[in-house]
């Protein structure tokens, strides 16, 4: 893959910290899923969370997106500590996400699915919508235009009107990304965007992720299994194992970290 | 020729009864679509709406019996009457309030439960609302009149008499009910397809987790859907209440909505309408043609037998989503 060149092209700007996680601990009953983890995500970067199965990566993403509520620790978004929030409130703050097992509206068309991503950008009153007049008409046109740009960008023009339920897995993943992008998020969370894909699909998806980051300047935090992909894509990597953070840094730093090597090669724990 | 004209009248009447069935079925479909709950209380909701409407119109004091028993007073009426339009608006507000309370007190505590649990909760809700209606407004049979025209339409009778030599008996109330139902359905379809809230409603119906992730508040949508279902119940209550009086049996029309739903599919608004029409026309025609041979009264069972046949051969209904089990 030749993305490395893209990354270092110098057009990208890594800004200040957007999201800071401070001493997060998450328990399910007696099971500790995340133990005292802190890290941050900077504006405009691609931040990866990696680790073996069951390391707590998805739980971490669910904490950021409000689906899980940690027992301890603070989630600080744009400098403001976030109180306990429902997932829909987090989404309204500008944090969009995709799911490991794909959560799309199967009965709706691709276009309608992506349009739901813009629901919170529509402000028109009920009456104005009912009469299709004034603000509502303007908004619908604007939102439609924005969605069409994303559709072009992700090269899914030809399935625009297809009900999502009929699409193959790889395309569903792409539609889910499109829906998240439609919200024009401040922070985009991708839960295993390449899980279950073949090599070709993986390359496509990697390219889209890089392009999104590059062209829209979207801050991305992603979880991935495949070490190779992560190393090519990301600016900085957090490594988790058994709910703990065992490494944090650039791909090169992480690759040289003994604890990470052990976790991946499966050294016996005492 | 005579037989044919007579049959045409039967079909016409059947179509209009069908619209009324569809109206009740619509309330079920809305809630089922958005929350996957089969709302057993929909019929009682219609009864409750009709009761509230009549009582507001007559200026009745809510909970009069309780108040009198507790305070030893003898109040029953405020001493005013409320114009029909205002009373309908007030009742609609009551239904919205009720939707809010149902979400707050019942649904919110059952999030993530099995559909059967939610179904049981709506059975409880049905009995509770039935009792609440009686305690609030009294259990006597009430006459509802919001100014809808009633009685046989003389114009249609005269016109058809001239054309076919046989005057059709068409109730003007049925005509109005049809018109209003058509408008209501058109409005609901437009709402679901073209408004932001409608899109959010469809999204919630499809996948809760995904809906949350795009910033949709499930609670808001549920209150909204139950409010709309309450409003549909109000319209159905007005129509059926005007036709046959506001009394307990009004809540049983919900049972007629069941075969309609089995025919049309639980998730389809057009299905509810077509299902209603098929049942309405079907039962009238069956009574007209086969009825005399089996001693009549086929209307009481025809719809259920038809639904049963559908369950065997096409369990998802005419318009329902295909049931595909993936292994």
UniProtKB/TrEMBL annotation, chain B:
InterPro entries given in the database record: ABC_transp_permease, BCAA_transport_permease
Annotated Pfam families: BPD_transp_2 (PF02653)
Q: Where would one find the signal peptide in this protein?
A: none
* GO BP: amino acid transport
Q: Name one GO molecular function term.
A: transmembrane transporter activity
Record keywords: Manganese included?
Answer: no
> What is the membrane topology here?
Multi-pass membrane protein
Q: Which GO terms describe its cellular component?
A: plasma membrane
Q: Per the UniProt record, which residue ranges are transmembrane?
A: 6-30, 37-57, 77-102, 109-129, 175-195, 216-240, 260-281, 293-313
Q: Which UniProt keywords apply?
A: Amino-acid transport, Cell membrane, Membrane, Transmembrane, Transmembrane helix, Transport
What does the UniProt entry say about where the protein is found?
Cell membrane
Q: Which family does it belong to?
A: Belongs to the binding-protein-dependent transport system permease family. LivHM subfamily.
What protein am I looking at?
Branched-chain amino acid ABC transporter permease
């Amino acid at each position: 893959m030749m993305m490395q060149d893209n990354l270092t092209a110098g057009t990208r700007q890594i800004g200040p910290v957007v999201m800071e996680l401070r001493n997060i601990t998450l328990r399910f009953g007696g099971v500790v899923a995340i133990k005292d983890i802190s890290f941050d995500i900077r504006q405009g970067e691609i931040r990866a969370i990696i680790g073996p199965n069951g390391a707590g990566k998805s739980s971490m993403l669910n904490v950021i997106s409000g689906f899980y509520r940690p027992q301890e620790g603070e989630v600080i978004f744009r400098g403001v500590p976030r109180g306990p929030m429902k997932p829909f409130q987090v989404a309204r703050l500008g944090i969009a996400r995709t799911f490991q097992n794909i959560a799309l509206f199967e009965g709706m068309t691709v276009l309608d699915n992506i349009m739901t991503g813009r629901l919170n950008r529509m402000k028109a009153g009920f009456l104005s919508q009912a009469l299709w007049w004034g603000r509502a008409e303007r908004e619908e046109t604007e939102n439609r235009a924005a969605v069409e740009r994303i559709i072009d960008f992700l090269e899914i023009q030809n399935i625009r009107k297809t009900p999502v339920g009929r699409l193959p897995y790889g395309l569903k993943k792409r539609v889910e990304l499109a829906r998240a992008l439609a919200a024009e998020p401040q922070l985009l969370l991708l839960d295993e965007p390449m899980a279950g894909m073949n090599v070709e699909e993986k390359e496509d998806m990697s390219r889209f992720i890089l392009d999104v980051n590059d062209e829209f300047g979207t801050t991305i935090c992603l979880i991935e299994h495949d070490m190779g992909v992560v190393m090519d894509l990301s600016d900085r990597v957090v490594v988790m194992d058994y709910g703990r953070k065992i490494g944090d840094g650039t791909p090169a730093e992480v690759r040289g970290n003994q604890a990470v090597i052990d976790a991946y090669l499966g050294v016996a724990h005492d | 020729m005579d037989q044919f004209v007579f049959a045409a009248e039967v079909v016409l009447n059947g179509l209009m009864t069908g619209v009324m069935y569809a109206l009740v079925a619509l309330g079920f479909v809305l809630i089922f679509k958005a929350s996957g709950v089969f709302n057993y209380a929909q019929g009682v909701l219609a009864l409750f709406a009709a009761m509230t409407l009549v009582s507001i119109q007559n200026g009745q004091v809510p909970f009069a019996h309780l108040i009198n028993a507790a305070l030893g007073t003898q109040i029953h009426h405020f001493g005013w009457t409320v114009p029909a339009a205002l009373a309908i608006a007030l009742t609609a507000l009551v239904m919205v309030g009720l939707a809010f309370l149902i979400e707050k007190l019942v649904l919110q505590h059952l999030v993530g439960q099995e559909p059967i649990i939610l179904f049981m909760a709506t059975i409880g809700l049905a009995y509770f609302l039935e009792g609440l209606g009686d305690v609030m407004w009294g259990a006597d049979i009430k006459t509802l009149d919001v100014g809808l025209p009633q009685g046989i339409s003389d114009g249609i009778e005269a016109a058809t008499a001239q054309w076919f030599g046989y005057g059709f008996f068409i109730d003007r109330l049925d005509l109005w009910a049809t018109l209003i139902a058509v408008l209501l359905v058109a409005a609901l379809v437009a709402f679901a397809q073209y408004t932001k809230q409608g899109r959010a409603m469809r999204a919630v119906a499809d996948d809760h987790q995904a809906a949350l992730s795009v910033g949709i508040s499930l609670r808001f949508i549920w209150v909204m859907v139950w409010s709309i279902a309450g409003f549909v119940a109000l319209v159905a209550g007005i129509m059926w209440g005007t036709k046959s009086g506001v009394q307990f049996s009004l809540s049983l029309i919900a049972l007629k909505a069941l075969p309609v739903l089995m025919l049309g599919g639980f998730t389809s608004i057009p299905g509810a309408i077509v299902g209603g029409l098929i049942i309405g026309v079907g039962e009238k025609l069956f009574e007209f043609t086969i009825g005399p041979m089996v001693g009549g009264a086929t209307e009481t069972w025809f719809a259920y037998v038809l639904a049963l046949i559908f369950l065997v051969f096409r369990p998802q209904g005419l318009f329902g989503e295909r049931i595909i089990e993936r292994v």
